[in-house]
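Quick start: read one record
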Amino acid sequence: MKKTFSGIFALAVLASCNDSKTEKEISLNYPETKKVDTVTDYFGTEVKDPYRWLEDDRSEETEDWVKAQNEVTFDYLNSIPYKKELEERLSEIWNYEKIGAPFVEGDYTYFYKNDGLQNQYVVYRKKGDDAETEVFLDPNNFSEDGTTSLAGLSFSKDGSKAAYAISESGSDWRKIIIIDAQNKERVEDTLQNVKFSGISWQGDEGFYYSSYEKPEGSELSAKTDQHRLFYHKLGTPQSEDKVIFGDSEEQKHRYVGGSVSEDDRFLFISARNSTSGGKLFMMDLSKNNPELVTILDHEDTDTGVIENDGSKLFIVTNMDAPNRKIVTVDAANPSPENWEDFIPETENVLSPSTGGGYFFAEYMVDAVSEVKQYDYNGELVREVELPGIGSAGGFGTKKENEELYYSFTNYVTPGTIYKYNIEEGTSEVYNKPNIKFNPDDYESKQVFYTSKDGTKVPMIITHKKGLELNGKNPTMLYGYGGFNISLTPSFSTANAIWMEQGGIYAVPNLRGGGEYGKEWHDAGIKLKKQNVFDDFIAAAEYLIEENYTSSDYLAIRGGSNGGLLVGATMTQRPDLMKVALPAVGVMDMLRYHTFTAGAGWAYDYGTAEDSEKMFNYLLEYSPVHNLEEGTEYPATLVTTGDHDDRVVPAHSFKFAAELQDKQTGDNPALIRIETKAGHGAGKPTKMIIEEYADIFGFTLYNMGFDVLPNKTEEEVKG
């Protein structure tokens, strides 16, 4: 059904050099979206799915629908009077040099750098401290429009060869290109059709990678569920690559990965059917015709080998340790009954790494980093003194190195790289970005609020100092709440612009995440998924009760599983927020597992085929199925990419179609579909800036701002 909102949206266009306004009326006419009588029976319940035809990403009809929706959406967004101003300010603050931590491979020191507004980071290198720096790889030259990105880079043991993966238009499907690292020339044909894969070298002769058979039908949406680990020997065609694991029915898993130990002795293989829990195997590569040895034969835990010292293995696991611990075992008898605690579990979640002959145990304490350094006997050497309260990462390097580089950031501190002397335990600034943002003008504090069932949930709230708590501050509430993912404090250039406008940025650490270990994760999955939505709703209510904002000035935002969060929250409590911003979201909970590798998300969600109880639970919150006629939903801007093969865009297409059909009242219901873009990784800088300008413009305009909030009266008058 077509709905026409004519004359409802009056976009204020400021006349130059005076304070008068010219009202430009916009007629928002949603494209016609046909309904098809499609019905599926689940345990005797018939569920209508009138927009299932939009799942066909290869059809001309779907392509026409995308074009029509984008035309309406961009006409609206481009009419917002300060959209261009936001884009210019984003470009201005984004335009600073960004440098990654250096790393040594062979005779060269490599690092990533972006001059400011380059679409993709460039890989540079130099041979010795006094040598000139040269470009090693420039992904900005991979394609004319910047949409082909570098998706992985790995060097052979002596640094003489390199293999790098590229992603085209944001797809999860990759190509691997192999070059001579000395002269940067290709040495053989490109490997095709690689997906969800690392690149792990064995010596200098070849490497391990993972992929699926190319699916029948659409490569962007067809189901993929049998992952294989391959070995590619240099100088041989890909057709001769040997399958190491995953080729039989017994070894069939959705996600398989292989990594070679630093000393080249062992190959460790993980095999999973879901994003949580997996089996673990190993092969001793020092032996002729090495056999597959089982370390762990069930999928009840998250377990992996972090290091070895000869035949002594160091294993990170949450088996009988929800917050994770490190155990040791001899490779000759690696099964769990032989494990011995090395760094025992604590009350905080452990994320360890190794480098320079030591272990670095990073702990999350209420989502904030603490780092401890241990020797190979498990003795505490020191607690690493960090620059402040925030997120530290990157405490890893090769065993022989004397220094490592780590990053530190929080919501008001741009990511800074520090050089750490491993023996002395001292840090010095290696690179501090020169960005037009003054952290001293902002403050960030952590609060704990109470969710519906009495659970205490932490949230970090960031804004300008001196903010008046008057209930009228534009507020962005961002959440995720799933897949054991932790939202720790980090700086965002885009969020800096939001706060510069007087906005509040609030991030709660919802159940379903990993901030408090496996128990916190499991408290937000399957039949407990509603806890996540309740936590998010309670966060919004806290911000309103404490007068940070009010429903008229609150926006909720999240991507992927966070897009589901936004979709479920806005359908359950449409009165709570003014703006909803679901990005690349999982919106159809009855069919998500039928696309690409979606079945692997069942640990968190369950599926509609598991049981009648699980079906009814999913149906109760599935965003596509809970939009109701006669309801005024918040102003909504759905965002997705036409090449998203992680969460296929059909989720967003169907949700937008339903919302446009059901929406009552004046709030717009738009979908912004980025072309030649995927789930998010590798998106060009230009595309990112344009998207944020649209999101912030849409949000502020629908909160009632005719001019940007930080404009003074004199600036408005010109």
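Residues 1-25 have pLDDT under 50 and may be disordered.
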